Amino acid sequence: MISFFDDKTSPWMEDLPYDWRDVYSLGQSIPYQKHETIFHQDHAAKHVYMVLQGRIRLFLTTPSGDEKAIAIIGRNGLLGECGLFDHPTFNNGAITASKATLLKVPVERFKEAFSTNLTIAHNVLRFLDGKNRILASHTMQLSFYSAAQRICFTLMQLGSTYGKEGNGKRVITVRFTHQELANVVGTSRVTVANTMKELERKHILSKEGGLYVIEDEAQLYRSVLDGLSL
Predict the structure, then answer these.
(1) 3-state SS of the chain?
(2) What is the pLDDT of residue 5?
(3) Percent of the chain topping pLDDT 70
(4) Quick one: 47 and 86 in the same domain?
(5) Tens digit of pLDDT for each residue in 193-213?
(6) Does residue 116 carry a pLDDT above 70?
(7) Residue range(s) defining the domain that contains residue 206
């Protein structure tokens, strides 16, 4: 099946293909429970964290306390990498979206490795490029798309990045909840639930074995362009 949409800037950065073996000896492995805060926005950036397992939600907080999710970071992703570039504070908050294990590395030790190890430097820059693409995508969606269009757009991204094709369908191999999807597209869980229900009613989307399946990629793409009547 030819993809109608080949955008790999999914806000789910899962199972990233980076080799961090030279970093493992620089820090300590720490387990976290679900919904546990790792660091707060604007707090001192004294450590860089690598995700060994689990999912972490990155978010921005306004002065009034409103939150906007940026991305879900999975295995081999980085948190707090702003400290590598002499930024004194974290530019976002981070909280676990599941049980997780992180490698916590003092920023000065990671910075030295970044400066002397080409593989580490290349991985950090690739990761930053991915986050930059996600932020650009967020800006475009919030500027021009309705909530339903943003949901469809994100499903297309997930299908492109983590999709497995078979029998004319595309299985999204990353599991996610309605609340997680609501967080990253900037809408309510109810809106996500209603949109997903409508996509299933129109046989554009289905769910098999806990995974979402894009049944009709052309119609999902059309829903991104024209919106979805709920």
Answers:
(1) CCCCCCCCCCCEECCCCCCCCCCHHHCEEEEECCCCEEECCCCECCEEEEEEECCEEEEEECCCCCEEEEEEECCCCEECHHHHHCCCECCCEEEECCCEEEEEEEHHHHHHHHHHCHHHHHHHHHHHHHHHHHHHHHHHHHHHCCHHHHHHHHHHHHHHHHEEEECCEEEECCCCCHHHHHHHHCCCHHHHHHHHHHHHHCCCEEEECCEEEECCHHHHHHHHHHCCCC
(2) 54
(3) 96
(4) yes
(5) 999 999 999 999 999 999 999
(6) yes
(7) 145-226
Q: Report the CATH number at residue 222.
A: 1.10.10.10
Confidence (pLDDT) at 1: 41
